[in-house]
Specification:
There is one protein chain. This protein is of the alpha/beta class and about 525 residues long. The protein folds into 3 domains: about 190 residues, Rossmann fold, CATH 3.40.50; about 120 residues, AICAR transformylase, duplication domain (Cytidine Deaminase, domain 2, 3-Layer(aba) Sandwich), CATH 3.40.140; about 120 residues, Cytidine Deaminase, domain 2 (3-Layer(aba) Sandwich), CATH 3.40.140.20. Helices cover about 35% and strands about 20% of the residues. It has 19 helices and 23 strands. Strand 21, helix 18 and strand 22 form a beta-alpha-beta unit. Helix 4 packs parallel to helix 8.
Amino acid sequence: MKIQQALISVSDKTGILEFAQGLAAQGVKLLSTGGTARLLHTAGLAVTEIGDYTGFPEMLDGRVKTLHPKVHGGILARRDLPEHLATLAQHAIPVIDLVCVNLYPFKATVEKPGVTLADAIENIDIGGPAMVRSAAKNFTGVAIVTDPSDYAGVLEEIRANGGALALATRFKLAQKAFTHTARYDGMIANWLTGIAEGAETTPEAALPAPSLFPERLQLAFDRGETLRYGENPHQKAAFYREPNPPAGSIAAYTQLQGKELSYNNIADSDAAWECVKTFSAPACVIVKHANPCGVAIGAGLLAAYEKAFQTDSTSAFGGIIAFNGTVDAEVVAAMSARKHFVEVLIAPAFTETAKELLAAKQNLRVLEVPLARDYHALELKRVGGGLLAQTPDTFNVKPENLKVVTKKSPTPAQIEDLLFAYRVAKFVKSNAIVFCGGGMTLGVGAGQMSRVDSTRIASIKARNAGLSLKGAVVASDAFFPFRDGVDVLAEAGAAAVIQPGGSMRDEEVIAAADEHGLAMVFTGARHFRH
C-alpha cells in the first residue's frame, strides 16, 4: 500500500515537522488542522488545511473540524471493495492513506492546581479519537501513527519500500492506536468518577483533587517479559509494567547482565529495593522469600553488607541483595570472598571496576534502578473476582512520634536502633519481630500466626548466627496481644522494645516490661505486611 495522502493533526508536536518533511519528500500530499497546519505552512511545506479540504470551516470553538464524511469516508473506505471505491468517486472523496494523530492533553490539564470542570471538558478530544479508531479499524488500507517514537521507523520503511508500508507494520500501528484511545478514555473515566459526590460541578468551579479511588477504576499495563514460569514451574507468568514506570520503582530497572529474571526474582527484588531505599545512610538489604533476612546501615556500603550478611548467612545464600548507593569493587570482592551465591544484585549504580568483576559471574542478574523515593502509586492485590487497592505504607516513625510507656526510658543510642528496627519490621511479613543493635538486624521472625512464635524464631536465628541479643532492641509490627511475647524477648536479652500499642492488654504488657526492666515505646502506627 503506497502512501499518497496523509492527514496530520497533533497536540504533542514533538518531531512532527521532521516527520511531515519526510513524508513530503516522498511525494505525499499533506492535510492538517489548526496549529499543526500553521506549523507546517510556516516551515514552507505545501499543506491543505482541513476546512479548505472539506469545504466547511472549523466551528463551535474547534469542537467540530474533522467530523466530516470527506475525512472519515477517505479513511474508512475499504480498498478491496469496488462499491466502497465507487462511493468515494461518486462524492469526490480522495482516500487518506496515513493518519498521524495524538490527543488533547487531558492528563496535563487536570493535574494543574485549581483546574475547572470547563477546562477539563474542553480537553476531552472527540475528533482525534474518532480518526484514530477509524484508521485503526481500516488498517488493511490505512496506517495510523499515534506515537512520536514511531515517526523515524515509519519514514524509514516508506523510503525503503517505494512509499509503502507493509501490512504487518500497519497492524502493529493499529494495535498501538486502539491501546492509545482506550487508555485516554480510561484516564478520563478515572478522573470523572473520582470527583467526590456532592462536589461543585458548575463549569467554572475549581474542583478539589479527585479521589484516589475512583468509582470505576481503569488500569493500563504493558507486558514487559513473558517469564519462564510463575511461582512454580507448572504456572505460567508474565511481568507487566505501567506505561511509564515511576523512577525509583523496580519496574524502572535496567538489567546489566545475567540470566532472565523469574517471577520470584522480580517479587523478591521489589521487596529488597523498597526496603533499602527508605534509608538515607549507606544500607544493604538481603531478602529471601520476600522477607529481609539481613539489613544494616554503615559508614559505607561495604560495612553495611558485612553486617547484613552476618545476621543470617545461611538464609542469605541464594538471596536478593539491594544497596542504596554505588556498588564498588570492594563490595563485589567481599561477596566473592565469602562465595556468597546471589540471585539478583540491585543498586542505583555500579563502578566500571565493579562491573568488570561482576561480569565473571555470568548467571548473576545485575539491576540498576534509579534511586527515587517520592512516588506513591497505589498498591494493588488481585483476589478472586476483585482487586484490593491501597495507598503504600510510606510512614516512617520519627523520634517525636515515640511515647515512652515504661518506667525506664531508652537511651539515645537505643532510640536510633529502635527507629531502625521499626523501619525494617515494616518490610517483614506479619507477624514480624525484629531484634537489632548497632544499626543491624540480629534476628528476624516473620510470617508466623502467633507473635510469640515470631519472637522465638527471631531469637533462634540470632543464636544460630552466633549473635548475642544482650542489650538488643526489638521491633514488633503490631501490638503484643499478651505479655508472653515480652517475656520471651526479655529472656533472650532484649533491653528496649518498640511497638504501636493499642492492645486491650497494653497495661499488662507494659507491666511485664517494667518487671523485666525493659524500656518500651509506643508509635501509634501499625505496619502489617501480608
